[in-house]
Amino acid sequence: MDEPLDIDQLQVLVKSHREQLGLSLRAAAEQSGVPFNTLARVEKGHLPDLANFRRLVLWLGLPAERFFQPAMFRVETTPEVIATRLAQDPNLTPAAAESIAEVVRELYGTLAKKDAEVTVHLRAAKTFTPRAAKLLGDILSEMQHQLESGSPRPGRGA
To answer: Which residue of 3, 41, 105, 142 is 20 to 30 Å from 25, comparing CA positions?
Structure first.
């Protein structure tokens, strides 16, 4: 049981634990410290209040955090969220919603903050001539261009 449990499994675990111990609902309620009616409702799939939840997980011998799913991280981009909302708008046809969403995607791609360019500063040294600095600068610029565009500049080698 290394994975987090869903809170819906509380019903199954409580009933299973009670049956493994060979207890009636009343005996399990007394042993767990949870009122009989609450325990009966939990076994029918209802959620207990926080105090009774705590008593139940102690009785089950499980940590309470095992019943909670890990935090969800947003994987949608802002333009995807906007496109979804536009598609749900009853005032827009599907074609109109998609047209607006495409404009948003294009604007977002143009105006969104890009990763910062890497800048290299080289110190002057007797062995590092101005011509060598210029050649190195050209090579680094070409590498950056190739990384950004995926192809070499016209008139230059790969």
So the answer is: 3
Per-residue pLDDT of the chain (158 residues; tens, 9 = 90+): 444 556 678 889 999 999 999 999 999 999 999 999 999 999 998 888 889 999 999 999 988 877 776 655 667 788 988 988 898 889 989 899 999 999 999 998 888 877 666 665 656 555 666 777 777 778 888 888 888 876 655 555 44
Token code pair at residue 26: 């009343």
Q: How many residues does the chain have?
A: 158
Cα pseudo-dihedral 16, 22, 28, 32, rounded to 10: -70
φ/ψ of 150, rounded to 5, equals 80, 5
